[in-house]
Design brief:
A hairpin with a 4-residue loop joins strand 3 and strand 4. The mean pLDDT is 84. The protein is 27% helix and 14% strand. The strands form three sheets. The chain has a five-stranded mixed beta sheet, with no helix packed on it.
């Protein structure tokens, strides 16, 4: 549990949908809290399915949870999901908030959105991967990066990065 109070900034680090049994209820939480959020890879897939349906794409042959969520979300929820940025910065906190991470040495404006949603490791040769090999935080700062996406590793604390995926999907949310 988080001990937040009225006036505190709450920032969801993505994957609000398709990570548990009740995506539609979870989507109401940011509204109720007046929270901000960033786009996670599962949020992206729901947006992608919604765009495909608007373009006349056939539903998937095999059931897709992303498709089902895209068809079930209310218009306001979809609008909010479409508006989610790849990352949020806070000058007051000297912090950046992102779903999966950033590649050090690349300016924020040049970061790859797919990597910001999917990366887990950077290999010694600089290759970015979604597999588990080594700790990704080669982030030089000066901002501290807060990221999720990686519940398997638990709390990760580094000089300029903190991984805090709660793994709430594992507890039934």
């Amino acid at each position: 549990k988080c001990d937040y109070r009225p006036g505190d900034a709450v920032i969801f680090l993505g994957d609000l949908v398709c990570k548990g049994p009740d995506s539609l209820s979870v989507m109401k939480m940011p509204w109720d809290l007046g929270a901000l959020g960033v786009r996670g890879n599962h949020d992206f897939e729901v947006v992608r399915w919604h765009q495909a349906m608007k373009s006349g794409a056939d539903p998937p042959v095999i059931g897709s949870e992303h498709y089902h969520v895209a068809t079930a979300l209310e218009t306001a929820d979809l609008k909010w999901m479409y508006s989610l940025p790849w990352f949020v910065g806070s000058a007051d906190l000297n912090a950046l908030f992102v779903h999966a991470g950033f590649v050090s040495g690349i300016p924020l404006a040049g970061q790859n959105s797919r990597l910001m949603m999917n990366m887990r490791s950077i290999l010694p040769n600089g290759t970015v991967t979604s597999n588990f090999f080594s700790n990704w935080p080669l982030w030089d700062g000066p901002q501290t990066v807060f990221f999720g996406h990686d519940a398997d590793r638990g709390l990760q604390q580094y000089e300029n990065a903190i991984g805090l995926d709660t793994g709430c999907v594992c507890t039934g949310w």
